[in-house]
Amino acid sequence: MRKVSFGFILGIVLSISVNVQANTEIMARLADFKLLLNGNSVQVENTPLLYNGRTYLPVREISNILGYDIDYIEATKSIMIQDRPAQQGTNTTVLLPGQSSPAQAPVYLDVHSAIIEAVDKAKHSVVGVVNMQPTGGRINPNELREAGSGSGVIYRAEDNRTIIITNHHVIERASRIYVTLPTGEQIIARLIGSDQLTDLAVLEVTSSDLKGTTLAVIGNSAALRQGEPAIAIGNPLGQRLAQTVTAGIISGTQRFLPVTINGARHEVEVIQTDAAINPGNSGGALLNIRGELIGINSAKIAMTGVEGIGFAIPINKAQPIISDILTHGRVIR
């Protein structure tokens, strides 16, 4: 009898251990996405993932094979582990790809480390965006002041110009737009165009002005699954909290929010996440566990008694909008 440990993420990282015997073999075959139990294929809902040389296995899939039920209790924010009566002679060890003998280390869903790696990969692709507008005062009405701020994502580099994506509402009515770099330096940005319906705006800056930044790695928002980790990076409450990181899960995909423009009612597809998105996060990056850009953070429901509901524009939906703005200066519908 020996212990096999599992890591599990639900807002925090924790480990659980269960006692099993040691003759049965579980093998994750990444090539054809199979989970084998003593050489026999086992039906699973999810597939193993190889990332940064480490194999990630769905906790629930493995726990089912070991004879344990794992449930998350929302009311108490706790995890319940229940032992199911095991079949006589069920003995389990873990064999990872490339090993000819049982694994020396436990199977561990190391989401905590993966989040750190994802943030390191993506954080310098997120910048601050400052909206400057005239004060309107009697003495110097044209003097500019900061009317609001948000975040932006470095999307693409073309010759000596770099494209930054943010939200329409972040730059709306701006007379001048500044981009704040991770170094704290501010540079002037030019608005190429924006789209009120999808709340997207496209800026450009001179590439040689950028310091300490990287391009975002574009992901695939169509491949998102409910419950997978999500990471938000932005500047909540202004530049003093620049590049703040929050993490949660994908709460829902293909959500539709009502938008009213000039009296006409529309619906816009968004990603729902419980990663904290606060004022100033707008225009920032929503990332998957690999540090890839899957959405542009756009809005947060702020009502009494409503917490943990944030939204992002799926990157797959944003890309044709961005392309139209880059080509025509506006969206062609």
Automatic annotation (TrEMBL):
The keyword Protease applies. Residues 22-81 form the Copper amine oxidase-like N-terminal domain. Gene3D superfamilies: 2.40.10.120, Copper amine oxidase-like, N-terminal domain. Keywords: Hydrolase, Protease. The keyword Protease applies. Transmembrane segments: none annotated. One of its GO terms (molecular function) is serine-type endopeptidase activity. One of its GO terms (biological process) is proteolysis. InterPro entries: Chloro_Bact_Ser_Proteases, Cu_amine_oxidase-like_N, Mao_N_sf, Peptidase_S1_PA, Peptidase_S1C. PANTHER family: PEPTIDASE S12, PROTEASE DO-LIKE 8, CHLOROPLASTIC. This is Copper amine oxidase-like N-terminal domain-containing protein. It comes from Desulfuribacillus stibiiarsenatis.
